[in-house]
Design goal:
seven-stranded antiparallel β-sheet
Length: 148
Amino acid sequence: MKIHYEGEFEVEQEKEKVFRSLIDIEKVGKAFPGVEKIEKLDEKTAQVRVKMGIGALRGVLNIKLSFTEINEGVSAKVNGRGSGAQSTVDFTLSFTLDHRDNTTKVAWVFDGNVGGLMGSIGGRVLDSVARRLINETIDNLKKILERE
């Protein structure tokens, strides 16, 4: 099942500082709800273990996160691909930055595909859970950026 969400938020930080945090693979990995473990493979790649549940279906997903596009100081794209709990996930989370005064606007786009048992749960249930998870991820990223 394909899912798509987008939005934006603002943080009172310099654009360069926000960008450096958003391309830190460990910081991005920690923003995902249910993260149990992050193993940094290199500056652009990490293996992440995430505890996940949709309805009665619960389990662990092992997801590889990789930055595939970095436009220095302007935008970045991280791809995720993983499996577990008899399910598969593939997604892209992109960020574009714009700075005005002392505020940096972060526009984000999430595109994903969920297969296997999680994908077969049904559109409304999956959409509700996916929307909550991506909103938590974005909220967590915003908190990380505000603490920097």
